[in-house]
Design brief:
Blueprint (H helix, E strand, L loop, with lengths): L4 E3 L1 H6 L6 H16 L4 E4 H13 L4 H11 L4 E2 L3 H14 L3 H13 L3 E3 L13 E3 L4
Parallel strand pairs: 1-2, 1-4, 2-3, 4-5
Helix pairs in contact: 3-4, 5-6
């Protein structure tokens, strides 16, 4: 896998958020890029899991949320694995991140992407060959 960017869950969720039109516009542009340039944007199983949970919490029907997940599963997806968890534990210790953020960073690294697109990481921070980018700034 050699993606140009890795998207965190919050980016995908904003693409479906009617209450944040400015962020939705930016997120939609990123999602559209992912569909227009297959393989350019990667996600992880964790991103898909978190997305499903949050869509359902926001009132999206289970069947519709499941279809959205199936659609995004066509993108490059980093699988959950013991190897990923062990890598995340190293990321957590090195960067003082929560386990969930460390798993996102480890998945971004596994995808080969030099950019992690998220509003949850420090914009511009270099995480050892991965740069965090907040597209909403």
């Amino acid at each position: 896998m050699n993606a140009a960017r890795f998207l965190d869950t919050n980016i995908l969720l904003y693409a479906y958020d009617q209450d944040a039109p400015a962020k939705r516009k930016v997120a939609m542009q990123l999602v559209e890029q992912g569909w227009a340039e297959p393989g350019s944007l990667a996600i992880s199983v964790q991103v898909l899991q978190e997305m499903h949970v949050n869509l359902v919490k926001r009132g999206v029907l289970h069947a519709e949320a499941a279809q959205i997940i199936r659609d995004f599963s066509q993108w490059p997806v980093v699988d959950n694995s013991l190897e990923l968890l062990l890598a995340a534990l190293k990321e957590q210790a090195r960067w003082q991140l929560s386990l969930w953020d460390a798993l996102i960073l480890a998945a971004a690294r596994a995808s080969g992407a030099p950019e992690l697109i998220s509003e949850d990481f420090s914009h511009g921070q270099d995480y050892g060959s991965i740069r965090a980018v907040n597209p909403f700034l």
